[in-house]
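The aim of this short unit is practical: by the end, you should be able to scan a pair of folded records and say something sensible about each. We start with the first protein, listed as its amino acid sequence and then its structure tokens.
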Amino acid sequence: MNGKLIHVLTSTATLLAIIAAVSSKAHSQSPDGKSDREPSFTQGEVRTGITKLYQWTGNNPRTANVGSIQAADGTKWTVPAKTHFQSATKAADLYNEANGVKPGGIGDVDLEAIPVIDAGGDELFTAYVFGDNYFEFYVNGKLLAVDPVPMTPFNSTVIRFKSQRPFTVGIMGVDWEERLGLGFEQFRGAPFHQGDAGLVAVIKDAADETVAITDRSWKAQTFYIAPLKTKECLVVSGAIRDSSKCSTEDTADGTAYFAAHWPIPANWAATDFDDSDWPNAVTFTNDYVGVDNKPAYTNFTDLFDAPDSDAQFIWSSSLVHDNLVLMRTTVDISR
């Protein structure tokens, strides 16, 4: 084989390798909704560029901050999540100690006084949501409202909107953290406590008939997992992002722990988004979540735990490690 031909073949092989590398990098960063990509890992705590979103100064005072951290691959991530808290409509209070809204039950709530949000349609629906800690509520890809309290005190909300069946509900759930980038919170004097999460919701129509409840039929995918004592404890296989083998114990010093991140698809809440490769939501009991001392939930058990439509707490597979979870369902013409 002559030298010129060898040079041409070598150059072609090099070009193809470069194209393949660029294509692989683009795929790994492309927010196309596919779940079969490796995570981007960060290590340590956010130290600079911290923004305070909210501070509760009552019983058990807590501060909800956000920050930015750079991964080993150069990607920058907002932790615990990039939210619309500062710009979006806040969901109306069902129970919110911070605003002095503390009804004894649903009968004490004036639903007619709550504004109705246009989500594209003429049928009226009411959504009731209790989230630990924060949520954003979408219908057919449109952001309708966000949780008015990012972390504490524990609150519940009500969202009235008009749409047309069938419609798609998307909820972003965030388990807030105080050690930004590490997934830890401060709890009873422990600065590195692994908190937990969970969300429950009920949607009713104008006739007060339940059209949707949170259960295992929902889809749920996690996009931020922390704290990870080691990266190796996280198992990623296709769409599965499993942190069940990771330690849930508190520690005296978690500053060297890791976190795993994935990009959020831009259209994840849209009706035509393909969530077929997402895992189904995992359900958790009231006792497991620990809501027996939270009046934002217990004052409305006849709503959330109705005998004929008992909504369940849902999340991805780990309430402890999975901090940013996207959840989806479709409300059909008839339930």
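Turning to the second protein, read its sequence before its tokens, just as you did above.
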Amino acid sequence: MQATVSSIARSEARNDAVLLVDDNRAIVDLLTAKILEESDFRVISADTLAKARVILAQERDEVFCAVLDLNLPDAPDGEVVDHVLDLGIPVLVVTGNLSDRAREQVLAKPVLDYVIKHNASELDYVVRAITRRYHAGTIGVLVVDDAASARGYLRRLLEIQGYRVYEAENGQKALEILDIHPSIRIVVTDYHMPHMNGQELTFAIRKKRGRNDLAVIGLSGEDGKQLSVQLLKAGANDFLAKPFEAEEFICRINQNIDLLEQIQTIRDSANRDYLTRLYNRRYLFEVGKTLLANARRGNIGLSAAVLDLDHFKGINDRYGHDGGDQVLQHVAMVLQQSFREADIVARMGGEEFCVLSPNLQGERAIKVFNRVRARIERQSIHFRGEQIRVTCSIGVCMNWHSDLHEMIRNADQALYRAKVEGRNRVHGC
């Protein structure tokens, strides 16, 4: 009983494997290719329940999700689903057809979802679903309802999907929880609640978070379209009338999460450098103006540093642009890991980077940037069997000026002096 394992070297973390059990070889090959192409997950595949049992006995801790055919040669009635669920692994069911009765039986189990294998679009849905499940633990969903039983029911549905669930029995408590937990991306609120109804809560939420950052889904058992209109005009993203199917509820949750992620991707494409994923020059100056305004008012200190890789042309000449790109990505990773969340780290272009640091000045700033310089110097980049080493020079302007361009020009002049003095050093001004 030999299992097939497909993997890619990009992912070194455990608990990153998808178990795929299907006796249709063509489906297995297509889905495996899609998963490997669009994610960093490994795929472990089997075509029977017996082979799946062997795999799970050996690699249970590495499997975070399973995609299971409902009808296998040695498990014609979905026995593989029960076995995998019993091990605590989230399950996505795939099947060639599904009667109404079989659908009810599948949905009675705590599965993520089911997919009917009609065409390639369903396979795309599978990849989106397992990717969403992998990241669900970082996404918060707040359920607001004055009825504990209603909150408990929705909590169970959401926890099957892997979301981090919070509960509030009224609007005021909901607002307090939102302030404490910025990871919350969706609020599900009943309309009829004492003291603050769903419309009033939505108004209050929109004063804190926009609809592109946090989705509000309204619920109501009252028949009538006017309530949904009121909630949507108040800033809700979606509305569901009670009673609703659990399947529809989860679809609405997942669709709103997908939409928020798509909006974030669009924002990132506008604000981040494509190669390094650092902020780009446009975003640096946009946010930098706000930081500088705060510095002028005396609220914060502000420093600007310009970092340039030494002899980078030689790296490109020797290793080609692929090698140069890998060096830039490595340096970007070091910079991201070395600075605080409040710091703005950007790629200015080519091999030049810029860092804006609130409340980092004087000797402390020089020490911080020297540590970064030394870390870049110590590390090597593995490229096609060779080790590439790189150094950098850094200029730091530690006094804010009337214009951000002037601060960066001064930092650039300090960088030039660091280059003249021998490179691989930090010069402040």
